[in-house]
Amino acid sequence: MSNQFLDLINKRRTIYAIGKNVEHTPEYLTDLIQNAIKQSPSSFNSQSSRAVILFNAEHEKFWGFVKEKLKSYATDEAAAAKTAAKMDSFAAGVGTVLFFEDQDVIQGLQDKFALYAENFPIWSEHSTAIAQFAVWSALHADGVGASLQHYNPVVDAEVHAEWNVPENWKLRAQIVFGSIEGEPAPKSYIDDAERFKVFK
Question: What range does the record give for the signal peptide (predicted)?
């Protein structure tokens, strides 16, 4: 099977070894990220996804916040050192996208369409996942390595305070990105029979 979109996502991988040797400007990458999010579908066209895009020192500041907060979770010095090294590897990249969902939008839909009220928070999670995947794939298509992280709610308070993020924006995930400085590990798949059922 030959399909341009499938060819792209087949090649998209989690890249942990990232650096600052990205050929694209922050302006180019900002436009890329914003367009990927804008073109991502959402339930009832709610467009509930929000993003804070951090580059360079601001990006490093975010991972510094995470590193500092995680110190209290370490069980011993070895664990603390391992966690610190991991945060430093993220900071070694060039940027981070913080993904949020606007809770005011979700509440508004719940009020307007009461029959589906309990589903809107679930559909919101679908929307942000699609936006994350779209950004991740778009970055990969332009030769930028990335990985998806979830350090919320550990640093939520710091994020809201530092970057003046509205309280109704709920942090859901982070994509950290940079130049590809190492190859990803081989990817394995479970058997199709365990995942799919097809009826004709």
Answer: none
